[in-house]
Amino acid sequence: MKVYAIGKYGRYAEKKESTNCFLIKTDNGKNIVIDLGSGSISKLQNYIDISAIDMVIITHLHFDHMCDLGTLGYAVQYLNLPKLKVYMPKSPEGLVNILNMPQFEIEYIDKDTRFCVDNANFSFALSLHPVECYSVIIENGGKKLVYTSDCADSEQVKNNCAGADIVIANTCILDKDYKQGAPHCSVKTFAENVPNECKLYLAHLTAGDENLILAEAKNYHNNAEIVCDFDF
Known about the structure:
The protein has six helices and 14 strands. By secondary structure, it is an alpha/beta fold. The protein is globular. It starts with a strand and ends with a strand.
C-alpha cells in the first residue's frame, strides 16, 4: 500500500500547494482519497485521473478538509462518471445538505463504521473538534496507520493512536501559541501522546511555520518529519 501526501497544509496552502488531502493506493490498485481540501483536485490529477478515484473519505466538514468535494461532484457530472462512494460525517446539517449531490453515494460515518478495501481494514474514532470529526484508522498486513485529522483532546490522541506504526498528525499550533480551548492540540501535545516507537508524520501545517513545527515535534519525538509520500 502506498500513501501520497497530496495536501499537507491546514487553513490555507502555500502557492502551488493544497490543504489536507491524502491518496491511499492499495496493493490491488484501488484509489481511496482521504479529505479534499482547497486545491487538492488539481494536485491529485498529478497522480491519478479523476475517473480512477474509487472512494472518498471526509473526516469533517471544515473547508480546508472538504471544499474540493463539491468540485469533484461537478467533475463526476461533467465527465459522465458513475456515482462515487463518499464517507463523511452527518453534521453540520447545512453543509451536509450542500454536499449531498446526486453524483455521490453518501454513507455517514460514526464510531462504529467499519469496512474493508482489498486487504485493508478501515475504522473510525471520534476526534474532538468544533464540528463532528473522526480519526481514520487503517490496518493492513499486520500494521496500523492512524490519520488523526483535527483533534483538541490529548487523551483522544493517545487512545486513537495506541499501537500505531505510523501516525499522520494534524499539527498546526506551536506550544508557545497554544491557548486553552483551542480547536487543535499543540505540536508538543501530539508528539508526546503518539507511540514513542511510531513514525510520526506532521500534516495540517501552518504556512510559514513548517520548520518550527518540525523542530518542536523533534524535541518530543525521535522519529518525526514533515509528511511525504510513503509505503505502508
